[in-house]
Amino acid sequence: MLCGGKITVICENSVAPGRAGIGEHGFAALLETERGNYLFDTGKGEGLIGNMLAFDKDPLSIQKILLSHGHPDHTGGLAAILDLVGEVEVWGHPDIFMTRFVLKKSGGREEKKFAGMKFQRAYLESLGAKFILDREFKKLTEGIYLSGEIPRKNPFETGDPRLFAEVDGRLLPDPFPDDQSIFIQSPLGLVVLLGCAHSGTINILEYALEKTGVDRVYAVFGGTHLDFSSPAQMEETIRTLKKYQIAKIGVSHCTGPKAASRLFHEFGDRFIFGQVGESLEF
């Protein structure tokens, strides 16, 4: 069954011209549909509530909170929204609470910065979070799905070399098993809503096509993490996006200005710079 709706960017690095709200390094989007409203990620925690109110979005209308992964720039607003709305289902992957770090080299020195979720599960549950954690592809309602773990099939889509996680007591390149996206079967075609696309934008897109059985892609929208990709990955991503003849390509957050500019050059009127306040209807 098809599902129409609207995606509005609530948290992002910058604000769309002429729009209210504030920018922050993070991502959150409100998915409003005829079958309910869903908050996808919560940003860093600075602008979520204020931006929702600035756009006349009622936080109390949120039926479920969906988490793309455990990084603090996507989960930092959890406590604030829970404190406001109270008991609500929070859907994600069991590994959203992994211990994570960013390793940066500067002046011959290596800096290790914590990059995991800043809240303990018990604390969030005390605020009303009802966690539903699963590794599998799940139907949220008719026409809307949470991806589950994304198979990594395309060799050109490699991970961000700065990101690490504790795995079995060892610090290893972060495998991001918790990276999830939302798939929507809309009247206009498939809509893929990305959080940070640590699994690879094309891996996610092709898995969405496989799992939903939809043969036409209307939109890919959200964070692509192409800011940290190699030139080869960028070129192959563009080639594949063109192959699928996607009507709308909206990018945010970890895409970065350089990659976003390149995508605008390649896709022209089909491109959307997914800043705070920008939206996509389907």
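Above is the first protein from milestone M3; the second protein from the same milestone is given next.
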Amino acid sequence: MSGINIDENKIVEAVMKALQGQISEADSSALAGALKAGDNPDDGELPDITAIPENDICLVDSPKNREAILRLKRTTPARTATGRIGDREKALIVFRKKAAHAGASDAVWDEADLSFAEANNIPVIESAAGNKEQYLMRPDLGVKVREEDMEVVKNRLKKNPDVQIILGEGQSNLAIQKGLPELYPALIQGLEANGIDYGTPVFVKYTRVGVGDYISDAVGAKISCVILGERPGLLSWNSLSVYLTYGAKPGILENSRTVISNINDDGVPYSEAGAYAADLIKKILAEKKSGSELVV
């Protein structure tokens, strides 16, 4: 077996041709269109199976009511009606899962995109983790600002604001690339409309939520507002979350945080989340509490 050369591209091409054979000429679904896109052998490219909407995939053999299955699929992003080949999943589903896993892995391992921070003149510092490997292996370092950057916190960030905004890639660089251009302006607009002092926003590489406790405590902010990319999964790897903590300081309990999560294209819209965060900050300032003590 060691002397056999295996061409993986030919294997994939053969599988895709087999899948195309399962699609009737009359089928106009997105699945059919994506698979038939590979009919031309001269284009040199296979169809992008990640572009097929999950709602269009029904691989159940000879379903009694295909339309009912598709209606059911439109109610959930979960992978349903995937069919089986014997005791295993069909090739298209396996490939889509592998592609989703690769996307999630890229979201975690990609270095932070600092273009948004640079375009908005936001200072950039780092957590004590120092690099991606340490960040993932040592969560305790991600909640602290590295020693040399504490000078930036003390000297460049405005003292005693109502809220200190901390941005960071967290565990999804893709999330901040996609979401910050919409969420951040909506947040700032809402804060300014309510006359709330948001001080000097800062971007922290290798961010954990707790880093906001150290920074907000150092500048004397009433509220810490941490916006970062969340850990990706196989269904979404571009989700942001906003963590709001009143009286943030190192060691504060996690139940002190008010959270807006699942901010993505298929969840809470980015701009809506920014506006809602501004409203929550106003409420937290008025009631002087957050987390489990705050009724929203």
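Note on the second protein: Residues 22-28 have pLDDT under 50 and may be disordered.
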